[in-house]
Amino acid sequence: MTSELFGHVQEFPDPDSGVRFEALVGLDDVKVRLINEATVILQPELLDKWATVRHMGTVHALQAVRDRVPLIVLAGDVGTGKTELAETVGHPIAHQLGVDVTLYPLSLNARGAGLVGQMTTLITSALNEIRNMAAKSRTSDGQLNRAVILLVDEADSVAQSRELAQMHHEDRAGVNALIQGIDSFRKEQLPVLTIMCTNRPDAIDPAVARRAAHVFRLGRPTAEQTREVLNAAFAGIAVSHNDLDEVAMLLHSDNSKQYGPTYSDLRQRFVPDAVLDAFGRDAPIVGSRLIELAASFTPTRPFGSGS
Ligand SMILES: Nc1ncnc2c1ncn2[C@@H]1O[C@H](COP(=O)(O)OP(=O)(O)OP(=O)(O)O)[C@@H](O)[C@H]1O
Ligand SMILES: [Mg+2]
After folding, report:
1. Which 3-state string (H, E, C) describes the chain?
2. Among 29, 37, 191, 261, which is disulfide-ready with 42 (CB 3.0 to 4.6 Å)?
3. From ligand 2's centre to the CA of 151, what distance in Å?
4. Residue 23 CA: which ligand 1 atom is closest?
5. Cα 41–chain centre separation
């Protein structure tokens, strides 16, 4: 599909996305909860089935689950896997529900480039397009055959707090349009899950944050999780366990800073730099060189921590 409202529209199941999802380290709890949340949001009748089997149908608490807005927020520091998780979770969800899933990433252009009124119009059009797609998601006998994920990445610029004094009233209208649209998907029982990603959970409009079915907080890797990323990256290369332990330790040992590397520091900087370093010298990757590189590596500073 080509639409200026959305970025790259992705269809699931998609095994490549499954591989990327599996490769995310340290997020096992988040992954399981996210898939469970998505399952009950996209196919609420599964909860009814469960209640019938386990409680003979009488679970008043189910209403509290149903009343939640079908919105999940992924919040966390830079490079902690928010976008990667949101872009790939469609695969396990498709697998779990046994239906096709389509991901629509709200395009950066939908932010309206600051033109008055444009953001609201674009958000409204985008939500209408999603609604039209989702309305076709059941067969004539009510069986779900497709579910939709709407991704609002770097959501703080769209769903930013209406409390911010400098926010133009048209922007506030855009936020309202977004909240109402997401809420109406629930009321109309459309199988649409909205995922918002943000570095700054505080900047997300309280009305949005309060209603979210769940806010997941993602963090930087521990030294052990760094070790896991290194294991995967250098599998098959003759670097000893002891050397990799030391590399992980060094990457986390800069006491002048109170923080270690992000996952993206590891996978998009440290590992490729190590490969290119060896390539540039036309030499193999060896433990002693990885240790040198780790000793001089500077992790990205945490979001919002100043310079
Ligand atoms: N938990 C993780 N395990 C393994 N690799 C990860 C993990 N999180 C992120 N990465 C790697 O870092 C890259 C960047 O991650 P991603 O774009 O999802 O970060 P983000 O949280 O969206 O950051 P930003 O706030 O800057 O948008 C990914 O492509 C992936 O290679
Ligand atoms: Mg991101």
Report:
1. CCCCCECCCEEECCHHHHHHHHCCCCCHHHHHHHHHHHHHHHCCHHHHHHHHHHHCCCCCCHHHHHCCEEEEEEEECCCCCHHHHHHHCHHHHHHHHCCEEEEEEECHHHHHHHCCCHHHHHHHHHHHHHHHHHHCCECCCCCECEEEEEEECCHHHCCECCCCCCCCHHHHHHHHHHHHHHHHHHHCCCCEEEEEEECCHHHECHHHHHHEEEEEEECCCCHHHHHHHHHHHCCCCCCCHHHHHHHHHHHCCCCCCCCCCCHHHHHHHHHHHHHHHHHHCCCCCCHHHHHHHHHCCCCCCCCCCCC
2. 191
3. 11
4. 4
5. 16
Distance 78 CA to ligand 1 centre (A): 8
Pocket of ligand 1 (CB under 6 A): 23-27, 76, 78-84, 197, 199, 229, 263-264, 267-268
Per-residue pLDDT of the chain (307 residues; tens, 9 = 90+): 446 788 899 999 999 999 999 999 999 999 999 999 999 988 888 888 999 999 988 888 888 888 888 999 999 999 999 999 999 999 999 999 999 999 999 875 545 455 556 777 888 888 999 999 999 888 888 888 899 999 988 776 666 555 554 555 555 677 778 888 998 999 998 999 999 998 887 777 777 778 788 899 999 999 999 999 999 999 999 899 999 999 999 999 876 668 999 999 999 999 999 999 999 999 999 999 999 999 999 999 988 776 5
The rounded radius of gyration (Å) of the Cα atoms in the chain is 22
CA 266, chain centre distance (Å)? 19
Question: Domains, the chain, ranges and CATH?
Answer: 10-218 (3.40.50.300), 223-295 (no CATH)
CA atoms of 100 and 226, how far apart (whole Å): 34
| Atom 25 (ligand 1) nearest CA | 78
